Amino acid sequence: MPPRRLVAPPQTVTLRVDGHEIPAIAGEPVAVALAAAGRLLLARSVKYHRPRGPACFAARCDGCLMRVDGTGNVMTCRTPAREGMRIETQNVIGSADTDLLAATDWFFPGGMNHHEMFTANKLLNRAMQKVARRIAGIGELPSHELAAAPVRDLFGDVLVIGGGAAGLMAAAEAARAGASVVLLEEAAELGGALRVFPGAVIDDAGRAWNAVTLADELADEASRAGVRVLTHHAAVGVYGAEVLAHAPDYAVRVSAQRLVFATGTNEGALAFEGADLPGVMGVRAACTLLRHGVLPGERVAIVGEGDWCTSLAAALLARRAEVVGPFAHDAVKRARGRAGVRALEVARIDAEGNERVERLDCDLVAYAAPPSPAYELAEQAGAPVRFDGVAFVVTSDSRDGRAAASGVFATGACAGMQDLAATLAQARAAGRTVAAEVRDGR
User: Fold this and answer.
1) Are residues 360 and 381 in the same domain?
2) pTM summary value
3) Which helix or strand (DSSP H or E) is residue 365 part of?
4) C-alpha–C-alpha distance, residues 218 and 231, integer Å
5) Residue 302, domain CATH
6) 74, 68 in Cβ contact below 8 A?
7) Mean pLDDT by 10 residues, the chain (442 residues)
8) Residue 58 in domain
9) Is residue 61 one of the residues assigned to a domain?
10) Contact 239/249 with Cβ under 8 angstroms?
11) Residue 123, domain extent
């Protein structure tokens, strides 16, 4: 069965999606509203027009790109729903479910080298180039002229990038120590991974919390300390002591004496046949749907191990969904389905030691892959980066997050911290250190 809402909302707005009316909760991400309406197929791939859907719900994949109110390539997982929005699937002839251009995939099952197609005949090649331009791409130009975005300037002693646990703790500590602090967070809510984790966590004082409750507490602490919090503000570049951020209707240029990067991680991905089908997503993405009151599937296959998998399985079972797995990464052979996942093929070892492949029906595959620290902005600011054997991480002092670059700190998951208690302790020290440096004029 497709995803569905666990509880009918008392009030909704109406979205116009490919000519059909779909109810949504005002302010929730459009991609979540579409999933709640049973739709995970939102896009088609550029070259072969294969079905695509959200894999992260965190603006890190291209599975939710759609045309919104005449503007193409909009990340619908970051776009708040509002009354009367007009949403369209891009790059299709027909509909998202039945795209005539998907015949490309049928005609070229072994792949297509479009660079060398029909090059022998000049006239035929020109015709083929026109066809290629028509069927490929990621959307059309906006249907209306976009106004130039104004630029606003902000100043602070300390700029914290990232509103997860580490960023909130560092910001609150710096503000309590007397520094003026600006915090940028690209999402609509503060708390980062805590906001969607469906289980209990332990803080740096050894206390057990519901993850969402801890996210609320950290956000409240930052507010009480006087931190200037800007949600829906995505930092996109570091230029010396200035950081450029993008907001929905304007750009922001922030100048600060100290930069604290708490940018977290990007959810990893697994490589197996069918891994790009709608309905195959990371465990955090599935937890995000649950956070919004949407059951992501009735029969969910879980791949991987760790707290996210365990907590997701418990949350699904509590909502009377069926869970199969968890399965090891290397046991997964293939996800099957046409417009969305319908089964997962996994390898099992029988009593005689022989491998046999078993097909398990499911309507969602949630996987946990090694995450990738979001190190890029800190590296732009001059922080050193190292490869830890799995991914690139920012090199910083494990005690207070100080990076080798002057005035640059990196704390939490982007610096390789995996334990929440250790992350909070490091972020607390980072906030105190940057405030002391600002106060002492260093």
Assistant:
1) no
2) 0.92
3) strand 364-367
4) 15
5) 3.50.50.60
6) yes
7) 90 94 96 96 89 94 94 94 95 86 80 74 80 71 85 96 98 97 96 96 95 98 98 94 92 96 94 95 97 97 96 96 95 94 92 88 96 95 93 93 90 94 97 94 69
8) yes
9) yes
10) no
11) 4-135
